[in-house]
Write a structure and sequence with these properties.
181 residues, mainly beta, 8-stranded antiparallel β-barrel
Length: 181
């Protein structure tokens, strides 16, 4: 990956308590449903020359839309199939500066299908908190076609259209903590 020169070199670990991995999908063609994944881990490794690598693992069974029936359906075989595919993964393959922001490209794997995606990413900065921990924050977003990842389940609507839209917006608000060890 290209330089991230303003970050302190070292290994950064996702601070899950101060991060959100969210998604939005159109429902019944008229509204949007939002959900988050409650369990994830990620590392950001920054080299002395400013190059960086990012890897993330998200627990499929941690999908949470605040509706138990829908959550069970999405975790099940029609969608994520979390028993057979317990993790969604992302491995960065490229970084391209774009003004104050940058594009982060990588391989996203959902339900055993891997596709290249590009996140429009904003670096929120780096700071030392009152407890002496060095933190960095990022906001990132992309949109994917769920069908491209084998998530094809749907139901036709009486008035036309389908129950679940194909486009899934993924929005990340993530914080990392520099490993002190």
């Amino acid at each position: 990956m290209a330089p991230m020169a303003t970050l302190t070199p070292g290994t950064w670990n996702l601070d899950a308590a101060h991060s959100e991995i969210g998604l939005t999908v159109r429902h019944a063609g008229i509204s949007k449903v939002r959900a988050v994944f409650q369990e994830a881990e990620s590392t950001l490794k920054v080299a002395e020359d400013g190059t960086a690598d990012v890897e993330a693992k998200i627990k499929a069974a941690s999908f949470d839309s605040k509706n138990a029936d829908r959550d069970a359906h999405v975790r099940g075989e029609d969608f994520l199939d979390s028993e057979s595919h317990p993790e969604l993964t992302f491995v960065a393959t490229g970084f391209k500066p774009a003004g104050e922001e940058f594009e982060l490209t990588g391989e996203l794997t959902i339900r055993g299908v891997t596709k290249e995606v590009t996140f429009e990413t904003e670096f929120g900065g780096q700071a030392v908190d009152p407890f002496g921990l060095t933190r960095a924050g990022f906001s990132a977003s992309t949109a994917i076609s769920r069908k491209e990842f084998g998530l094809t389940w749907n139901a036709a609507l009486e008035a036309g259209g389908v129950l679940v839209g194909d486009k899934v917006s993924i929005d990340l608000e993530v914080a990392y903590v520099l490993d002190q060890g």
